[in-house]
Amino acid sequence: MQESAIRFQPVQKLRELVARRQPGYSLEAPFYNSQEVFDADIKYIFQRHWIYVAVSSEIPEPGDYVTVEIGKEPILILRDDDMQIKAFHNVCRHRGSRLCADEKGSVGNLVCPYHQWTYNLAGKLIFADHMPEGFDLSHHSLKPVHLKNLQGLLFVCLADEPPADIDVMLEQMGPYIAPHQIENTKVAAQIDIIEAGNWKLTMENNRECYHCTGNHPELTISLYAYSYGFAPKAELAAGLANYENIVKDSHARWEACGLPSAEIEKLSDVSGFRTMRMPLDRKGQSQTMDTGSACKKLLGDIKDADSGGLSFWTQPNSWHHFMADHIVTFTVLPLTPDTTLVRTKWLVHKDAVEGVDYDVANLTRVWNATNGQDRHLVEESQVGVNSTAYRPGPYSPYTEELVEKFTNWYIGRLGAGLEQG
């Protein structure tokens, strides 16, 4: 009886922590620094929901692969001989060795470096030396991982029965993303940052721009002030009305060109997401220092460089910015209670030539600066929430609405996981 009480005590404490969360306020400190909460986040959030991990254009040919780790689960994503994209546990079925240690590469077959068990690109075991007569290769295929391809954005799920509402996101977001043709892009740059902060601080920071004016001078060059939240005041009415007219006129023009633009907001769904195409300020072409295009070759079917910026957020771990000339994608992966991987990729047309059509420094300057600034903010927040003086503070109803929606989603999904076990 005593052992059972000890075994179930951490779960009960987590349930109590979830139950007393105060709506409209930030989370209590254990959500940001407790090993028990972190372990629950991996188990109930990252291993039971659809996690954005890569783009299809990273693996353009059969045998091309990328790897990723979600918690302690190594995953291999590759393109097979039929040009289909598959995901597997990156674990040999012999004695468990990791098959591919590199972040990306290309293979003919998958050969385990330990004892050379060999798998084809469909994950079937085709060679295992020194095994007894009658050993059935077909019983030792690689274990598959659920994968969904949203017009080139790749999501994986480790659950035995993944959330089915991912199909709602694929259906509704497909027309928004399709014109940018991710399959016909290439990764022009990738930068990984390890932030000394909990993954939820990273996501919360992303879901608001309350901090943008004072911290992101490069990013706000291309943003209308009315696009990222403000406290309503009578003296701002004229400016807001003007911005709303710009949005209305821009949406009508873009829709006529085959670019869906209207807001979709489903952040409370199990596979939560939100999108909207928004006008960019000044030249209005891209998120660059002069707001002009960073790449001369426009993406996919897009003919007009002035096509705004399509923003797309997914629960629990990604955000994306699609412009006429390039795409910036972000994935967030928790490493420890107080360290988080933030991976940023810049995509351009696959035929664009570096130094001719685009300059990497210009392409990446805005988000390189912004990522560094956000890293500092997250790390300072982690120092603060670790303090005995920290208490949950109130969110602004005007500028932190999406933070509240993220937190509500997280608490709901964590609570559901704790109840289901």
UniProtKB/TrEMBL annotation:
Named cofactor requirement(s): Fe cation
Q: Which GO terms describe its molecular function?
A: 2 iron, 2 sulfur cluster binding; dioxygenase activity; iron ion binding
Q: Is Iron-sulfur found in the keyword set?
A: yes
Alphabetized PROSITE patterns for the sequence: RIESKE
Q: Pfam families given for it?
A: Rieske, Ring_hydroxyl_A
**What InterPro entries does its record include?**
Rieske_2Fe-2S, Rieske_2Fe-2S_sf, Ring_hydroxy_dOase_asu_C_dom, Rng_hydr_dOase-A
**Which of UniProt's keywords are assigned here?**
2Fe-2S, Dioxygenase, Iron, Iron-sulfur, Metal-binding, Oxidoreductase
User: Keyword Metal-binding on this protein?
Assistant: yes
**Which segments constitute the Rieske domain?**
50-156
Family, as annotated: Belongs to the bacterial ring-hydroxylating dioxygenase alpha subunit family.
Name of the featured protein? Phenylpropionate dioxygenase
